């Protein structure tokens, strides 16, 4: 009886892999290891007052609307397009391919995470299959992300944040 049900899930394209959400719950939200990669729920990108950065969308292969959330840690703001915000969300389908922004005030880092909208108008994050692989060097970080669908291709959205200084 179990085998036909499993085959039914595979035919419908429903993933049967363990969700990254369960793994992150087990780790207390700390990074986890999966198939030789370190996965994170979000990344703390170190910044300081006056830092100029650029968000660049590299590719998008998700079934849902994909975006990037940038949230300040500290008492400052993110200045983007003349608006000073504590959190900026850039959606891949409506934002320019590259977005320049500046850190203003007492900010030590920005929390970076991928977000998505399944069509219900709600910004989702950290659910089910969500996880990021972060490739970092001194000047930039590239994020390969999974949205909430439980698979492990890490190509739902790929973006980069780079220092302009």
Task: Please characterize this protein's 3D structure.
- The relative contact order is 0.24.
- By secondary structure, the chain is mostly beta strands.
- The protein has a single domain, classed as Jelly Rolls (Sandwich), CATH 2.60.120.400.
- It is globular and about 45 Å long.
The top-level CATH class is: Mainly Beta
> How would you write the strand order of the largest sheet?
7-6-9-4-13-12-11
Number of separate structural domains = 1
Shape: globular
**Judging by the overall fold, what is the CATH architecture?**
Sandwich
Radius of gyration: 17 Å
In this structure, how is the largest beta sheet organized? 7 strands, antiparallel
List the helices and strands in order.
HHEEEEEEEEEEEEE
CATH superfamily: Calcium-mediated lectin
Helix content: 10-25%
Helix-and-strand structural type: mainly beta
What fraction strand? over 45%
Separation of the first and last Cα atoms: 61 Å
């Amino acid at each position: 009886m179990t085998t036909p049900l499993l085959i039914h899930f595979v035919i419908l394209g429903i993933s049967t892999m363990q969700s990254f959400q369960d793994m992150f719950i087990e780790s207390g939200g700390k990074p986890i290891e999966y198939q030789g990669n370190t996965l994170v729920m979000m990344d703390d990108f170190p910044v300081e007052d006056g830092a100029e950065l650029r968000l660049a969308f590299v590719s998008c292969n998700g079934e849902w609307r994909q975006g990037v959330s940038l949230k300040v840690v500290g008492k400052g703001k993110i200045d983007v397009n003349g608006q000073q915000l504590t959190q900026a969300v850039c959606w891949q389908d409506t934002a320019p391919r590259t977005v320049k922004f500046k850190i203003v005030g007492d900010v030590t880092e920005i929390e970076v995470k991928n977000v998505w909208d399944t069509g219900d108008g709600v910004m989702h994050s950290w659910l089910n299959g969500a996880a990021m692989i972060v490739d970092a060097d001194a000047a930039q970080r590239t994020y390969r992300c999974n949205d909430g669908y439980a698979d492990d291709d890490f190509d739902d959205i790929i973006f980069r944040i780079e220092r302009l200084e």
